Amino acid sequence: MKNFFALGMILAVSSAVTAGETVKSGPQTGDSLGAFYVTKCAGAETDGVAEGKNLCYRCRNGAKPQVVIFTRSTDKRIVELVQQIDKAIAKNKDSKLTAFVNVLGEDKDDLSDAAKTLAKTSKATNVPFVVPNEFENGPDNYGISPKAEVTIILASRLGVKANIAVSDVNDLKTAAVLADLKKIL
Question: Which domains are delineated in the chain?
Fold first, then answer.
């Protein structure tokens, strides 16, 4: 009976995770936003950073309000999110809102191609698309969960003001992310 109960609990937990739910991933509200290096692949053609350059976008953005997106997906929901963030950047020029999208996965060359495709598909003009040097799960000092398909960090003055992470991109609520922007503007 104990084995049956244990098996049932394992199935329940694995079903909850695979069904898509909020997961703890990345720096949480109140944490500092640490530095990490990325390679720019595409997007934000007027930001003064050439494609192929390795840099710390978090450092470059400094204390400005910023949206840091880590994604393992290039799904239409990510495209929609990026398009809305791009519009928010244009609308909030006075607050100097910034953002960058980090594409995560197993093969750096494939990720670079995926970042370029995501940039082209989204048609975002203010958002750079990058691959972190630590590309499988993002920077070690961020603690991005391997179970998180998407992790979004909203920060201002280098402090995390909001964190949204989901295990399934279908659970991503763009409207909720946009509502949280007020926390950093």
Answer: 22-183 (3.40.30.10)
